[in-house]
Amino acid sequence: MAESDNIVVETAEKIFADLADPQTINNDKKNSWQAPLWQALSEAGLPLSWVPDDLGGSGASLADGFALLNAAGRFAVAVPLAETMLAGWLLAQAKITSPEGEMTVLPASPRDRITLDADGALSGRARGVPFAKAAKHFAVLAHGKDGVCIALVDAGKGRIESGLNVGYDHSDTVTLDKVQPVTIKAAPDGVDQTSLMLMGGVARSLQIAGALEAMLDISVRYSNERVAFEKKISKFQAVQHNLARLAGESAAALAAATSAADAIANAKSFDDAVYLEAASAKIRCAEAAEKGGAIAHQVHGAIGFTIEHILHRYSLRALAWRDDFGSESHWAVELGKLVASRGADELWPLVASR
Amino acid sequence: MTAALRFDPIRLPEKCEQLRKEVRAFLAEEIAAGTFDPHKPNREDTDAPEFSRRVGAKGWLGMTWPKKYGGQERSFLERYVVTEEMRVANAPTRRFFVADRQSGPVLIKYAPEHIKMDILPRICRGEICFAIGMSEPNSGSDLFAAKTRATKTDGGYLINGTKIWTSSAHIADYMIAIFRTSPPTKENRRHGLTQFLVKMKQPGIQVNPIGQITGQYEFNEVVFTDFFVPEDHVLGEVDGAWKQATSELAYERSGPERFLETYYVLTELVRAVGPNPDTRSAEGIGRLVAQLHTMRRMSVSVAGMLQAGKEPVVEASIVKDIGTVWEQQLPHRVRDLAAFVEETATNRETLEQQLDFAIKTAPKLTIQGGTTEVLRGIIARGLGLR
């Protein structure tokens, strides 16, 4: 597990360790863990990490915020931390002050579109919106006739159909029907629906990488405890090789996700290089979630398939996070089209530019 | 927590990009002059002595070595750039690559000064070729099972036995090999092996070619019969070679050559599908590019660790494991996608020829330089399982 080397991550890890212990959460069938966790995160200013001081946030750097999301993945945190951070980031792009409380972003899929009508109202449907039901506000990216806008919307104005993702977290359909936003402003140049999806995709990539680190960790620990055929199962070569593959998938996910985060944190705009990094991270992390999660379950045997065990908190969330902000299939097609349109002789220069 | 695996997002410094331009320009000139055809990976490129000399003249061999030995004292990251550009262009690097990657660094660490002064500058000038004598009949990845004996005699050692799978032995001027100087002990089965510098092309060494399923001739059986090696050709500690041999491996295992060996088929596929691919082709290409990019980022990250003086043995093993499995699968994935390429694609014939060769090459990729199974054992050890 990566050592925390910045104050934002240290603060978060302490809160997660105290209030988001996976075993405690797993045993708590009433979800009474959620409120104290959210309160502690909010008091530490973490949900608005990416919002500057003058817009109501705590003004952490993009890099620190990304590291925080990776830490959240290591605890498989299931409160709208990533979503509120993304919403705050989006609003800050248009210099809109962030309100207090839980937020999420619309749309959460590259295929959905919210439009801005001539009378200033927002309409459209967004599917698979994480934590919409828990949100007090939505940060919305909308398309008007004069271009892209960013709006703050009171969540109560939207129609929400509840849904659950494969990890049992809320993933809802939100319909806006001529909703008047609280605030709306033009998006700055270079911020559009694709940038939002890339930001969201990198956030999910970091969470998946964190979950895989945790899955590797608990799988190694379990293999050193569980005895079968009179040996610790960690002594069986087949188990060792499976865990070595899990380590590889975890390492690949972490490398792809942190590289993409680093690319965004240091880029002036969402250019081709950032596109390559962010799309690749989502694709590779989703693949790692599938392969790595399967191995973690294999190592655990039947016990890891039970609701009492914490493994599913990581494995199912990692699988669910694949779907948000564009699946790996979506990004693979888009990346493939980009590569093809640039031509064969430009492929290596693109890859080598990173 | 168990797994402290980190792959920090190291970026290549600006001077690497300048160097990359120089390498690309050089390779373009070589291609234009007909030295090699980047679209034909299936040629015999073991003997391209003039090309080696020109690469040496550019200062691109022994780049990281001390200047007094003919090196340039440049960074691992700069060397990394040269390696990947050569690999991607399908340049004929076989003659100098082993010396540059492994043999030179071993000599710098373990050879007597007069040998360093003699040999290293010649490597840097691209004049000499090295082979590595590790595997033996019935040993392979099990290095400690090596039996070829080095028996102490007046002023040196007499070598008797056989090395096998020795790439480039037929053109090599030198081999760095491990021989058994004493039996393994009960406590330590790694004990008793010693590393030697062997001058090839002398009486007492017979090199027998072994054909490969690709149709190429690359590796050999090397038979030693009362072959004399002088005392000062012992490299490092007598009986202690296992430690030296394993620390070399991070260099051998994490470089760009460990995921780019079949890369050419991907470029050719992109050429064949053209600028407006159907959804299936686009998705297939997108995934492969994402995987390639991720592996390269991991590999660059390990190069950064090596530059920082670390010994990332586990990380390097992970890169080789994932990288070689990927380059092994790549021709098969490209073949899947190529099935839907238009018959009229202008490069269709080239793509098919490349696929034929890449598919034949693929089985060796997870064997050379440490098998996947051995690598996974090393990774498992790093995870605390062994």
- Class by helix and strand content of chain B? alpha+beta
Work out the oligomeric state of the chains in this entry.
heterodimer
At the fourth level of CATH, the homologous superfamily of the largest domain in chain B is Butyryl-CoA Dehydrogenase, subunit A, domain 3
Helix and strand composition category of chain A: alpha+beta
Distinct helical segment count of chain B: 11
Instruction: Record the strand order, biggest sheet of chain B.
Output: 1-4-5-8
- Low-pLDDT stretches of chain A are none
What is the approximate shape of chain A? Answer: globular
* Helix percent band of chain B: 40-55%
Main sheet specs of chain A: 8 strands, mixed
Count of discrete domains of chain B? 3
Give the N-to-C terminal Cα separation of chain A: 25 Å
Query: How confident is the prediction overall: mean pLDDT of chain A?
Result: 96
Shape of chain B: globular
Give the number of DSSP strands of chain A: 10
**Major sheet of chain B, described briefly?**
4 strands, mixed
Question: Mind telling me which CATH architecture of the largest domain in chain A this is?
Answer: Beta Barrel
The CATH architecture of the largest domain in chain B comes to Up-down Bundle
Mean pLDDT of chain B: 94
Unreliable stretches of chain B (pLDDT < 50, length at least 5) are none
